[in-house]
Amino acid sequence: MENLPIASTALRLLAGVTIIFQLGLLAAVPIPSPVSSRRVWLGCVGKETSSGKTGATDPFATRLLPAVALAGLAAVIAAAIRPEFAEGHFLPAGTRLFRWLSPASGLCLLTGNFLIAAAVFTLRRATVFDATGQSRRLVTGGVFGLMQHPVVCGMGMIYLGFFLALPSPLVLGGLLCFGWHQQRRLSAEEALLAERFGPRYRDYRRRVGRFGPHWPGCAWCGPGGYGKE
């Protein structure tokens, strides 16, 4: 498959820079990472256990979904290092690839990196974080004035870019599990933020969409949680 997007030198370089950049942020900033995500889950587990409720804190959500998502990312990394390996192991024989996949992948990666960098810059200037990776202040300026979850949105754009670079069933499964896991994680985080910031947070959710400007009737852009507050 000569036109495999991940085989492009430019796209492989961009994918490599993206991975290094995101790992650097993961090490330097406690948002949102596997560690902070697990602390959010554990915080909700304690509250649900005391109230006798169970919900989005089961092992399926905390272990299996992230594991599949990470497996998809591992496939992308392997393909970026050895594209010929990807053609023989990750793509079904006869897979048809389109020329627009490469530029679309690059655009997604650039957009995702920009959103995350803008969000991290805003947060670092406006607040400090607690042990769970939650900020101690309600941050509504900068990119957070446009969407509640720019970090999660950026991560989703990056994963989508990786899938377009390597349209493999494994990477698609990882992308779907990533989205499912983030949706469940954000539900837990919303409860923590609502408890911490009360009416101010609820007003912010009414004014700002989840992953873009608030459009009535749009499930993805309507009220929801994160906001990094």
For this entry, give a set of tags.
mainly alpha; disordered C terminus; Four Helix Bundle (Hemerythrin (Met), subunit A); single chain; 229 residues
Q: How many domains make up the 3D coordinates?
A: 1
CATH topology: Four Helix Bundle (Hemerythrin (Met), subunit A)
Write down the overall geometry: elongated
For the CA atoms, what is the radius of gyration? 18 Å
Helix-strand pattern, N to C? HHHHHHH
The CATH architecture name reads: Up-down Bundle
In words, what does this structure look like?
By secondary structure, the chain is mainly alpha-helical. The chain has one domain (5-207): Four Helix Bundle (Hemerythrin (Met), subunit A) (Up-down Bundle). Helix content is 65%, strand content 0%. Helix 2 packs across helix 7, helix 3 (59-81) crosses helix 4 (83-89) and helix 6 (150-165) runs antiparallel to helix 7 (169-207). The longest helix is centred in the C-terminal third of the chain and has 39 residues, at 169-207. It is elongated and about 55 Å long. The termini are far apart.
Give the gist of this structure.
The protein is mainly alpha-helical and about 230 residues long.
Secondary structure blueprint with pairings:
Layout: H1 9-28, H2 34-51, H3 59-81, H4 83-89, H5 101-126, H6 150-165, H7 169-207
Helix pairs in contact: 1-5, 2-7, 3-4, 3-7, 5-6, 6-7
